[in-house]
Amino acid sequence: MHLAVFGGTFDPPHNGHLAMALFARELLPADRILISVSDNPLKPACGASDRQRLDMAELLSLEINRTGMNAEVTGWELQQPRPSYTVDLLRFVRSSHPDANLTLIVGEDSYQDFPRWRDPEGIFALADVAVFRRRGEDESDEIAGDSRVRCIAFDAPVSSTMVREFSATGKSLRGLVPETVMQYILSEGLYREA
To answer: What does the record give as its pathway?
Structure first.
């Protein structure tokens, strides 16, 4: 079994996250995807509670499952002492799936901070790493020069920051997030300007 591990704050999950999961299915190819909701120790919290982020990640997993891929959500990292670290998540996943081929899915923006992550070499020992880079961006020498990293060109002109900004200014989120996530954001009153 090939298991893709997709960690992030998912504050909120958006159509770019959905597309990354579908790309992982086709290009890795991954049989299953594990969506791990976490805090980012390198960034400040943005607004949704842990419970709300888990709820929205569950809605994202339902969208992924509708495409025929098996997706599940874990809040394991949120239950750990803060900050939690990717290497610890991968150790946990490896203990639960000792025979699985693991691939960590990382966006290019997150990978830029990879040298600051806890135990990067341990991460490489536990899993392959697939970096999704935005099309049209200059290729980073750091990524291009690392044979342990698989780069996947990816075009998703949406980010969680954009979704939060649109929500705060009352702009429509249609086309930026799955419909169910949009309804959740609206019903919970998330990301409104204070």
So the answer is: Cofactor biosynthesis; NAD(+) biosynthesis; deamido-NAD(+) from nicotinate D-ribonucleotide: step 1/1
Per-residue pLDDT of the chain (194 residues; tens, 9 = 90+): 999 999 999 999 999 999 999 999 999 999 999 999 998 766 666 789 999 999 999 999 999 999 999 999 999 999 999 888 999 999 999 999 999 999 999 988 888 889 999 999 999 999 999 999 876 555 555 565 678 899 998 888 899 999 999 999 999 999 999 999 999 999 999 998 74
The span from the CA of 87 to the CA of 94, in Å, is 10
For residue 164, being part of any structural domain is answered with no
Structural domain that includes position 87: 2-156
Q: Is residue 165 part of a domain?
A: no
CB distance 10 to 40 below 8 Å: no
> What are the tokens at 112?
């830029």
Q: Can you tell me the distance from the alpha carbon of 14 to that of 110, in angstroms, rounded to the nearest whole number?
A: 16
In a domain, 142, yes or no: yes
* Number of domains the chain is built from: 1
Give the Cα separation of 175 and 178 in Å (integer): 7
- CATH code, 133: 3.40.50.620
